C-alpha cells in the first residue's frame, strides 16, 4: 500500500472516548458526529473546486496546495480507481469506513508489536522501530517513516505502541495511560 493509504487509516477519525459503532447499513451510523464532521472537513479540503465531488484535478490541486507537485497523472488516476463511481461525500464516507474496517484486529497488532518489544514494555525505541519498518514485512521508505513519526504517539524517543494501536484502529489522540 502507498503511505497515503496508511496515513488516511491512521488519521481519519479523531473522536475521543468510545469506539464508533459499526452496525447498520447506513454509512452515517458507522461514525459518531465528531468523526462525520472531521470527514466532512477533510472532504471539503480535498474538493478544491467545491462542486461536491472529488476528481483527479481536485487531488492534484490539493497535493499542490500542500507543496507536493506530482507530474505523473497516473498517480492520481490510480487513487481515483479506488472509488466505485463519482466521489461525493457519502461515497467518501463509505470509502473511509471500509479503509478503517480493513485494519488488522487489536490482537494481531499487539502480537506484531510484541515481536519487536520482546520485553512487553509498551514502547519501542525509535532506532529499533525504524529498523523493523525497513527490514520486516512491507518495508517502509525513509519518507514514509518520517511521516509515520509525525503522527506516532511518543514517550521520549520511543514509540508508545499501545497508544499507536488505538490511533490506527480508532483514530484520535489518546491520552497517556497511567
How would you explain this protein's 3D organization?
This protein has 178 residues and is mostly helical. It has helices at 3-11, 33-46, 56-65, 73-81, 89-101, 106-116, 126-135, 142-151, 161-170; strands spanning 123-125, 154-155, 158-160.
Question: What tags apply to this protein structure?
Answer:
178 residues, 3-stranded antiparallel beta sheet, 9 helices, disordered N terminus
* Spatial shape: globular
What number is the mean pLDDT?
A: 77
Low-confidence stretches: 1-24
| Secondary-structure-derived class | mainly alpha
Order of strands in the sheet with most strands: 1-3-2
Bin the helical content: 40-55%
Termini separation comes to 34 Å
The biggest beta sheet reads:
3 strands, antiparallel
Strand content: under 5%
Oligomerization:
single chain
List the helices and strands and how they pair.
Layout: H1 3-11, H2 33-46, H3 56-65, H4 73-81, H5 89-101, H6 106-116, E1 123-125, H7 126-135, H8 142-151, E2 154-155, E3 158-160, H9 161-170
Antiparallel strand pairs: 1-3, 2-3
Helix pairs in contact: 1-8, 2-5, 3-4, 6-9
Amino acid at each position: 500500500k502507498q503511505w497515503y493509504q496508511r496515513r488516511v487509516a491512521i488519521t481519519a477519525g479523531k473522536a475521543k472516548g468510545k469506539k464508533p459503532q459499526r452496525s447498520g447499513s447506513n454509512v452515517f451510523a458507522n461514525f459518531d458526529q465528531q468523526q462525520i464532521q472531521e470527514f466532512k472537513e477533510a472532504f471539503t479540503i480535498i474538493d478544491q473546486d467545491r462542486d461536491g465531488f472529488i476528481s483527479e484535478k481536485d487531488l492534484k490541486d490539493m497535493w499542490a496546495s500542500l507543496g507536493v507537485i506530482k507530474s505523473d497523472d497516473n498517480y492520481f488516476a490510480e487513487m481515483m480507481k479506488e472509488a466505485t463511481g463519482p466521489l461525493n461525500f457519502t461515497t467518501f464516507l463509505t470509502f473511509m469506513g471500509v479503509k478503517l474496517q480493513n485494519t488488522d484486529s487489536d490482537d494481531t497488532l499487539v502480537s506484531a508489536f510484541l515481536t519487536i518489544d520482546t520485553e512487553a514494555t509498551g514502547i519501542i525505541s525509535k532506532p529499533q522501530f525504524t529498523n523493523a519498518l525497513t527490514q520486516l514485512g512491507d518495508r517502509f521508505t525513509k519518507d514514509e517513516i518520517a511521516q509515520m513519526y509525525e503522527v506516532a504517539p511518543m514517550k521520549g524517543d520511543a514509540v508508545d505502541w499501545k497508544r499507536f494501536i488505538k490511533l490506527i484502529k480508532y483514530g484520535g489522540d489518546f491520552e497517556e495511560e497511567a
